Amino acid sequence: AFAVAGLGSGLTEAVVVNPFEVVKVTLQTNQNAFTEQPSSFVQAQQIIKAGGLGFQGLNKGLTATLGRHGVFNMVYFGFYFNVKNILPVSKDPNLEFLRKFGIGLVSGTIASIINIPFDVAKSRIQGPQPVPGEIKYRTCFKTMATVYKEEGFLALYKGLLPKIMRLGPG
């Protein structure tokens, strides 16, 4: 039940945050000087004008974002609450904090390891394409297959350590 609830919350979160992720990634990959960059609102308008609200515009990479958030929350909440209910509660508040922190750290780490291929795909789809004007990374699973075929298995885990350092303790 906790895993299914996590999946549902992750999918909902992904639908809400994906347009903001598209704008963020577009602004981050802008090579112009900071003073020449448009505001977030203007950037969103430009994305909508060029690609619309769909999968080529403001919701580019939605499937990968659904996978990233859905898988993470499903694994995290499923693991965290099931393990928390198994391990005995400590009466000492310091030990109880360490118990919950440890379970959360392990949960976040496992969830990050499992969902990072979706994160890599999302970044490739939403980021600049290798050849300007040519879309190489279009869909989630095809992007993962292309990265695997061209760069190897470990390329699907690029950025794992910083991700664990950010999400594990959280």
Write the layout of secondary structure elements.
Blueprint: H1 2-28, H2 40-51, H3 62-86, H4 93-126, H5 140-151, H6 160-167
Helix pairs in contact: 1-2, 1-3, 3-4, 4-5, 4-6
3D structure, described in words:
It is a single chain. This protein starts with a helix and ends with a helix. The chain has 170 residues and is mainly α. The chain has one domain (1-168): Mitochondrial carrier domain (Mitochondrial carrier fold, Alpha/alpha barrel), CATH 1.50.40.10. It is built from six helices and no strands. It has helices spanning 2-28, 40-51, 62-86, 93-126, 140-151, 160-167.
Can you tag this structure with a few keywords?
single chain; mainly alpha; Mitochondrial carrier fold; 6 helices; elongated
CATH homologous superfamily caption: Mitochondrial carrier domain
| End-to-end C-alpha gap | 22 Å
Quick one: biggest sheet? none
The mean pLDDT is 90
CATH class: Mainly Alpha
- Enter the CATH topology name: Mitochondrial carrier fold
- Rg, rounded, reads 19 Å
- Number of helix segments? 6
Spans of at least 5 consecutive residues with low confidence: none
How much of the sequence is in beta strands? under 5%
Q: What coarse outline follows from CA principal-axis ratios?
A: elongated
SSE run: HHHHHH
Find the count of extended strands (DSSP E, 2+ residues): 0
In total, the number of domains comes to: 1
Determine the structural class based on helices, strands and strand pairing. mainly alpha
InterPro entries: MCP_dom_sf (IPR023395), MCP_transmembrane (IPR018108), Mito_2-oxodicarb_carrier (IPR051752)
Pfam families: Mito_carr
Subcellular location: Mitochondrion inner membrane
Family: Belongs to the mitochondrial carrier (TC 2.A.29) family.
